[in-house]
Amino acid sequence: MSISQLKFGHQNLNSNSIHPVNLRFQSSHIKFKLATTRLHSSTSASLTQPLVPEDKIRATKHNLSPNINRLFDFLPGRSWWDLGEEDEADMVKTDNPVTVWYVLQRIWRLVADDKLVIYIGLCSLTVAAVSEICIPNLLAASVFAAQNGESLVLYKNLKILTFLCFASGICSGLRSGCFGIANMVLLKRLRKTLYTNILLQDVSFFDREPVGNLTSRLGADCQKLSHIISNNLHLIVRNTLQGTGALINLLTLSWPLALSSCFICILLCMIFLVYGWYQKKAAKLIQDSTAHANEVSQEALSLVRTIRVKGTETKEHERYKRWLDKLAFVSTRESVAYGLWNFSFSTLYPIILGGMSILAGHASAEQLTKYVLYCEWLIYAAWRLADNFSSLLQCVGASEKVFQLIDVLPSHQFSAKGVKLQKLRAQFEFINVSFHYPSRTKTPALDQVNISIQPNEVLAVVGLSGSGKSTLVHLLLGLYEPTQGQILIDGHPLKDLDMRWLRENIGYVGQEPHLFRMDIKSNISYGCSRKLKQEDVERAAKQARAHEFICSLPDAYETLVDDELLSGGQKQRIAIARAIVRDPVILILDEPTSALDAETEYYIQELMMRLKNEEKAILFIAHRLSTARAADRIVVMDQGRVAEMGDHETLLSQNGLYARLHRLQNNNCL
Ligand SMILES: Nc1ncnc2c1ncn2[C@@H]1O[C@H](COP(=O)(O)OP(=O)(O)O)[C@@H](O)[C@H]1O
Ligand SMILES: [Mg+2]
């Protein structure tokens, strides 16, 4: 090993650039690297002194031992086969262990409504398999009948053969069609069940589970799981029938040979148990890595403009590559394991040859031919059976997270029957409300907050960013529940109310409004339970100062838009129109004017004053204090607490945080 190579090894050991995936090779590589490091230091010393023979021997030993160690690492059970730990961090836990039986039961429940298709598929599968397994026997008998000139037997056999071929052909087609339909049904129900359950989760669930990960479960994992019906199960039944048929035929020929074939098959099953366990673990890791890769790519592609501006394409590529490397790491081991498993099948072939030599002299040429044909059938049936099982285990591995997600209980807001008040007066109160986000239990986002708002009142909330303003709104919308204290609406605890009904009465404009990929009219009327006419939509758009720019778009209200196609201010105006079109009792605006020009901002303020006179309660979070000025009351938030409260003049006279912020915004000195 040259000095430059040794240095390279040494640098690698110290380098921060050790790839995370390479850490899997730890035990073997660390040994190797420690050896090279030691050698490197001795080599540095030897630059002044020539190597003595003993040093040379030691150096050679050091040089060889890592390679030998690495060879040993390839032995079954050694470190090369270690797939690493599963990513437990984002796991949603359930009590049920995911076994093949468990997965089959769950699948059956999903396809039970269409069991007729599966029964037809199973019947045709049985007929096809039985017909196929009779063919070698009749074929051999026909050939030897022809050789012996027994034309009657030959014609009879040929007739039966023709019938069997037709029967197996028709039933095979029927079988494939039925299981194909069952696969489609399963995939559709699986995705529908999973998607519905995900949509019904608490909002905190989405703080924990990245979107890319969830879409990967919905896409790739469900697809893989549905293969259990379309490929694995029916092929397992088919190959079991054919294998059993072949074994029965072999037993009639020579029972000791048939039993020895059975013994080898049992041995193979035992090897398969170990291989199957490995396969299942590998499949799970592959699914997880695919989900992570999906999550990274989805995030990067949705933020492509930021990436381009920041020039972080290489970094993003590295982030994606990290998961691809992990995928390759696990897939390589899985493929080698598969190769070894397939190799073990070659052990079956000597039985045929051994059996032939035992039978030779004791059996006729016809029996010998049948023996060879059925031995072949048995071997192939066993091989395919194991292959189907290994694929089944992969699917079971992939199914774990899907079923875990299906089993997470939906938000209790959807199951609890809340109270609907006869009339909502829009009077709400925060009483000693404290709250921390489930993902940040140590940092309170709100601390002992007491606020109230009356009908026909405009309440403005101001404060530095991160002071808890949006969190107030999240609690009021019932997206999270306070950890302490309570929120009352018209004197009723918020948690006792029917959330759907309450939200129908709230008009909400979020801090970063998002549009759906649909036309503008549908975007404005989105989520409104009333049937809206074109005039209603246009009136709301006019009030939100959005009508003019909408009319300038190619198809006006029919123009297809999405999050990327409009400016921030335009999206905000559409979101305001969406909030007011439902004629809400409470209007909540979270920094609604952050992307608006001064003129539009003025009109929005005017709109708020008008709505106030219509007995509506308005809570708006203002990023510009000039907007808050017109409010009846201003709440100043600081680090999750209410620091000050009062109207503009009072707060200025108190000379506290509000006055300081006001001076800053007006470019005055402190
Ligand atoms: N989904 C969330 N998960 C965890 N922490 C959050 C979440 N949303 C906001 N926070 C944290 O809660 C605090 C208050 O945030 P927020 O109410 O959005 O502030 P503001 O709207 O005043 O800028 C901040 O420290 C913020 O980092
Ligand atoms: Mg905010």
From TrEMBL:
The keyword Plastid does not apply. GO terms for molecular function: ABC-type transporter activity; ATP binding; ATP hydrolysis activity; ATPase-coupled transmembrane transporter activity. It is found in: Membrane. InterPro entries: AAA+_ATPase (IPR003593), ABC1_TM_dom (IPR011527), ABC1_TM_sf (IPR036640), ABC_transporter-like_ATP-bd (IPR003439), ABC_transporter-like_CS (IPR017871), P-loop_NTPase (IPR027417), Type_1_exporter (IPR039421). The keyword Nucleus does not apply. Residues 428-664 form the ABC transporter domain. Its main location: membrane. Keywords: ATP-binding, Membrane, Nucleotide-binding, Transmembrane, Transmembrane helix. Residues 120-394 form the ABC transmembrane type-1 domain. The chain crosses the membrane at residues 257-278. PANTHER family: ABC TRANSPORTER B FAMILY, ATP-DEPENDENT PERMEASE MDL1, MITOCHONDRIAL. This is Putative ATP-binding cassette subfamily C member 8. It comes from Helianthus annuus (Common sunflower).
